[in-house]
Design brief:
Elements lengths: L16 E3 L2 E5 L2 H12 L4 H15 L9 E8 L2 E7 L9 H6 L18 H12 L4 H4 L1 H9 L1 E2 L2 H15 L8 H7 L11 E2 L2 H13 L2 H5 L1 H13 L5 H6 L3 E3 L2 E5 L2 E5 L6 H11 L10 H21 L10 H4 L2 H8 L19 E8 L4 E7 L9 E2 L4 E2 L30 E5 L2 E9 L3 H14 L5 H6 L3 E5 L2 E4 L5 H9 L3 E4 L8 E7 L6 E5 L6 E4 L1
Parallel strand pairs: 17-18
Antiparallel strand pairs: 1-20, 2-10, 2-21, 3-4, 3-11, 4-7, 5-6, 8-9, 9-14, 10-11, 12-13, 14-15, 15-19, 16-17, 19-20
Helix pairs in contact: 1-2, 2-4, 2-6, 6-9, 13-14, 13-16, 13-17
Length: about 525
């Protein structure tokens, strides 16, 4: 990609980062350097991604864990491959059982929202198919930091404290006792710069590495997970774990102004970004920071989100196909709804026919766009005693409306928020990108893609640019540094605009682009996090 300027006017003034032999970009420096170390040891971008991901479960435990899910887009051997390592609901759970327990919606914390973790299986699947180094070597940095300790970084420390406050407020000392022992020893969370270690986490990672995750899904760790849920009356069992396998899937794409933008297919929400881009590619823009451009972006995202929330679920239960939702005819139909005033978004009828993100690249042309999460700060809040495993709460995404496609059911994958992104042009890789943090993700994907393709910003400037996010109906929220004159102009177009006090909910992203002619890598990392680009 060609960039018009080194900087963006509202930039953090962090420079774009260049390298040629390898690059790892993520939200925590120690994790990025762990991935780069794999490249220097003779590994490839896939090994680097796994090492970084495993390390992030230690050094950013509020956002992801061994007990979470993962998705990956991998460019290797001249092709883009997709891995869906999200897990289904337990076989024993049902809508009737949850309703009978008195719930009107799925809870965020506790036993009910826990689904089968896919993250350990994703590391093994990536390593066995495309990796070069043994898993015992790739997970060694993560094991080291869990065993020997690491100094907590500032942004992570603040979210760690917030997670503690949320879990303490649940007033269930017995159920969450193990979380408190691991993550708030002595009754408090570690301060920024303070050393924290988790020997149980280290033993679990070592067991996963030595058994290729067999211990997690069919061995000692599975037995411990099963025993915990039986003791407390939960639904997850060792049989659920033993049945699990991640899925290799064909990524989906739309062509946006000559570039193919790729996402994972449902159950992930990446299709929302593609639907929005499909609408936007038929519109003209008078510049980046103009009321007309922002209005069109917001309206397209709202329409795409209305469809995504209505239709996306486990692909076996979807009422419409991916092809129908991404068709040119449907994009034109939705595009025609955009006028000069903010609309109230509703789903259309297509014609029938807490997360971490990392990007890696090596000098051989391999690139990985990888995202893993346990959802929210510390997921379900449940830690399996003696293991350090914090269990995810992805089941909180299920609907309890029997008529909704995403209604809770046994062995079903829910609508999933975490999405890796990738761009190609003329069947050659441009690079990987992603922005983590719940519902902002497809919205931020649209903003980042347009920053790069429409407005020619370099990777760092694309991430630095102030963001907006649609909340519901006509309500949008803008970052503290979002220009006031633009916020006022959007309000005059009928948007209900509110300004956030901080940037915590506007996502944390990473980008690596590759220059097709020279192979030079250009990277950007998130100014809203403790981000770092490690280069070689």
């Amino acid at each position: 990609m060609q960039y018009d300027a080194l900087y963006y006017p509202y930039s953090s003034r962090r420079m774009v980062t260049y390298a040629s032999r390898g690059m790892v970009s993520t939200t925590q420096p120690l994790a990025a350097e762990a991935g780069l170390d794999m490249l220097k040891r003779g590994g490839n971008a896939i090994d680097a991604a796994i090492a970084t991901a495993a390390c992030l479960t230690v050094v950013e435990p509020n956002s992801n864990s061994i007990g979470g899910d993962s998705f990956a887009l991998v460019w290797t051997q001249g092709k883009l491959h997709g891995l869906n390592a999200s897990g289904p609901s337990p076989a024993a759970i049902s809508l009737d059982k949850v309703l009978a327990a008195g719930y009107a919606k799925m809870p965020t914390y506790g036993l009910l929202p826990v689904t089968v973790p896919g993250t350990p299986a994703s590391w093994v699947a990536l390593s066995e198919r495309f990796g070069r180094l043994p898993l015992t070597e790739v997970l060694a940095p993560a094991i080291h930091y869990a065993e020997q300790g690491f100094p907590v970084s500032p942004t992570i420390g603040s979210y760690w404290k917030l997670g503690h406050e949320n879990i303490r407020a649940l007033n269930d000392e017995k159920l969450f006792a193990s979380w408190m022992d691991v993550f708030a020893p002595g009754g408090r969370t570690p301060r920024s710069g303070e050393l924290w270690r988790s020997p149980d986490h280290a033993r679990t990672l070592r067991s996963i590495a030595e058994t290729n995750a067999e211990s997690f899904y069919r061995g000692e760790l599975a037995e411990r997970i099963d025993a915990f849920f039986r003791q407390h009356g939960g639904f997850l069992t060792k049989e659920d774990l033993a049945e699990y396998q991640p899925e290799w899937m064909e990524p989906i794409s739309v062509n946006y102004r000559g570039y193919d933008v790729w996402e994972m297919p449902p159950n992930g929400q990446g299709m929302i970004a593609l639907m929005a881009l499909n609408i936007l590619k038929g519109l003209d823009f008078d510049g980046k920071d103009t009321p007309a451009t922002l209005h069109k972006q917001i309206e397209a995202v709202k329409l795409a989100y209305a469809d995504g929330l209505r239709y996306i679920t486990d692909p076996r239960n979807m009422e419409v196909t991916v092809e129908e939702l991404l068709s040119e005819a449907y994009a034109a139909q939705r595009r025609s709804l955009i006028g000069e005033e903010a609309l109230m978004p509703t789903a259309g009828e297509p014609p029938k026919g807490g997360t971490v993100y990392l990007a890696t690249a090596d000098g051989e042309g391999n690139m990985v766009s990888f995202i893993q999460s346990h959802s929210g700060d510390f997921g379900s809040g449940l830690v399996i005693p003696g293991t350090g495993i914090c269990m995810q709460n992805r089941g909180a995404g299920f609907s309890l409306d029997p008529a909704h496609p995403n209604v809770l059911a046994p062995r079903k994958k829910t609508y999933h928020t975490i999405i890796p992104g990738f761009i190609t042009k003329d069947e050659q890789p441009i690079g990987c990108f992603g922005v983590m943090c719940g519902s902002i993700q497809p919205q931020a994907h649209v903003q980042v893609v347009m920053n790069a393709i429409d407005f020619h910003l370099n990777p760092q400037a694309s991430l630095d640019a102030p963001r907006w996010r649609w909340l519901r109906e006509k309500m949008i929220e803008v970052e503290p540094q979002f220009p006031d004159h633009l916020a006022q102009a959007l309000a005059r177009k009928g948007h209900s605009v509110q300004r956030a006090l901080d940037s915590g909910m506007f996502g944390r992203g990473q980008i690596i682009w590759r220059e097709p002619d020279t192979g030079v890598l250009a990277g950007g990392t998130e100014p809203r996090a403790d981000g770092h680009v490690a280069v070689w």
